[in-house]
Amino acid sequence: MADITRDIRAALESKLNNMSGIPTIAWENWTFDPPTDQSYIAPRLLFTRREPSVTGPNPQIYYRGVFVVDCYVPSGGQLGPSTADSLAESILNEFESSTDINTSSCDVHIRTAEREQGRTEGAFYMVPVLISWQTYQ
What we know:
Order of helices and strands: HEEEHEEEE
C-alpha cells in the first residue's frame, strides 16, 4: 500500500493556495524573508496518527493530523488585531468543518477548524488557525 502523506499535503496546500485575497504564503522548507510592512501566512502540516482502522488482514489505514496556518500582520501602525482576525476568519471559512477535499488518491475530511489566541511575534501580530483533518486509505 502506497503512503499518501504527499497527497494529503498536496490537497490541503492546494486548497489554501487557491483561496482568493490571501497574502503571500511562506511555505514549509522554503526560504522566506518576510517584509515587515506586509501580511503573510505560514502553513505547517502535522501528522498525528497513522494506524489501521480495524484489526485483521489488509485494513484501511486511518490518517489524522492538523494543518496549522499562522496568520501574520505587521504590528503597530494602522493594522491591529482585527486585520489578523479577518485573515484567520477567511481561512476558517474556507476550511469549514465537514468540508471534503477530494483528490485522485484520497478524500481529506476537515473535522474541525478553529483559531487560537493571537500574540505578538517580533514585528508581527500572529493568529494561529488549527485545521484538524482525517482520511482513510
